[in-house]
């Protein structure tokens, strides 16, 4: 996973951070094509709050719906685990990801200024959330 993250993200999570995401509060999802890992997602959940920690698709495989497949799996898992809200943050410049999240009714809920490192400094993180409370 860390090798995939390194080619897909300009500033990926460290191997140590990724390894820490294999525990009781996390769910990890991998997507393989012809035996090769082409994408993954990491979900963290504490009680009713779930957070998409990372979603990653190999750049050579992007545009084929794999990110959407991973997002669907994350949402389904959060619902099954009785989460009420699914949170995430996304780079302000990541328009394709922001469009995908909006397609699934994630709403922008805030900004973390200068949160992500870039080649030339920093950029904002857009905070988004999805209300997944069951409707009774």
TrEMBL record:
Gene3D superfamilies (alphabetical): 3.40.630.30
Main location: cytoplasm
Residue stretches making up the N-acetyltransferase domain: 1-133
Domain of life where this protein originates: Bacteria
EC nos: 2.3.1.266
Subcellular location(s) per record: Cytoplasm
Catalyses which reaction(s): N-terminal L-alanyl-[ribosomal protein bS18] + acetyl-CoA = N-terminal N(alpha)-acetyl-L-alanyl-[ribosomal protein bS18] + CoA + H(+)
Enzyme class: transferase
Any Pfam family matching the protein: Acetyltransf_1
InterPro entries: AcTrfase_RimI/Ard1, Acyl_CoA_acyltransferase, GNAT_dom, YpeA/RimI_acetyltransf
Keywords: Acyltransferase, Cytoplasm, Transferase
Function summary: Acetylates the N-terminal alanine of ribosomal protein bS18.
Family classification: Belongs to the acetyltransferase family. RimI subfamily.
Name of protein: [Ribosomal protein bS18]-alanine N-acetyltransferase
Classification of source organism: Bacteria, Pseudomonadati, Pseudomonadota, Gammaproteobacteria, Alteromonadales
